[in-house]
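On clarity, I found the account of how folds are encoded harder to follow than it need be. Since the whole study asks how a given chain folds, the encoding of that fold should be made plain. For illustration, here is how one protein appears when written out as sequence plus structure tokens:

:::
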Amino acid sequence: MGPKKIEKTWVPIAISCLLCLLFFAISFNMGLVVSFQSVSSILSVFPLSTNFTIRSCESRLDNKDSEASLNYAIPRFAYFLYGSKGDLDKLWRTLQVLYHPRNHYLLHLDRESPLEERSELESRVENDPIMAKVGNVQMIKNANMVTYRGPTMVSNVLHACAIFLRSTKDWDWFINLSASDYPLVTQDDLLHTFSNISRNLNFIEHTSHLGWKRERRGKPLFIDPGLYSATKSDVLELKERRALPTAFKLFTGSAWMVLSRSFVEYCIWGWDNLPRTLLMYYTNFVSSAEGYFQTVICNSPEFVHTAINHDLHYISWDRPPRQHPRTITLRDLPRMIELNVPFARKFGQEHMVVMDKIDRDLLGRKNGSFTPGGWCVGENCSDVGDPTSLRPGAGALRLRAIMARLLANQTGQNYCKV
């Protein structure tokens, strides 16, 4: 009789417990809904950096899924702007004309430039009210030694990539420009155009037809004194020569690139070791900045299909080409516009009249101020409005034309085949 009584006593208690658990589960579930809605409303006032962090981590796992939700979001560019001795004013002007509060900027005057020039550049950034307010301009204060035609040009770019990866998560493309480069479209034009393309694309001129470079660059061995010397000097050619590599295929192209964040991560982290192997190979290669990134992307199965064969630059070369491109003059302007590219080089200090005309006719920039855009408030962009407000103009139409052509020419059969 005792056990049966106990059994009957526990029945209502068990039913009561189950009802309590069900009540608490329903209450908790409703609380979660309220909580998530509250959190979402709070997070909505912050920048989209969290979304970009998630995309960055997942891009190596499933690029297609991540880009589907972000193709129409306004991107962010990470600009690396660099120069040398005497480039202070040109670099500052390039920064001003490229400036947009949505982007990120990293400045570098190499070790050949006087300390006074580097300090003055830092001071201009700190004392500019817009840049100080937004806080999106950094400077490499411990300047690197950079040798023209040497691998220190590659290490300088990789250094900038690493800084961007460490300092900020919310950027989509890395763009390297020198003080001799200048834009032909506004940042509103560029941001609008890149909002509608895959975040995985890399604009990098490349070819496997080495021509004369096969004998004069592929086989000689060079040493860059910038790797070990505190004073700047030219690269040194050794007597020894080496055979062309058989473990990978050499590519060459332009040193000016627009690289996706996912490819930049690959170059820095190198999870299959190819970027590090090629970096060691190109340490003894002349003009390695015109081959390293091309060879990495075209030998990587993961990224070869993302390479668009164009550097998005207008560069005026002599025929046959010499070591340096021609300095741009007013005669180049019609051709620059006709090609629909966003950047041009090389601009000399003595040819400011060309940049003044670009400011006036293409960018709408006046009185040495920032380039006007949807973010501008007040006269000459004296304050920051909404960084997501874009006012694309004629430049966006030109960019749309070149993008349509480049993407139409890119098929699954011709990636890195030239």
Summary: Confidence is low (pLDDT under 50) at residues 1-12, 23-71. DSSP finds 15 helices and 14 strands in the chain. The chain has one domain: 72-213+231-409. The radius of gyration is 27 Å.
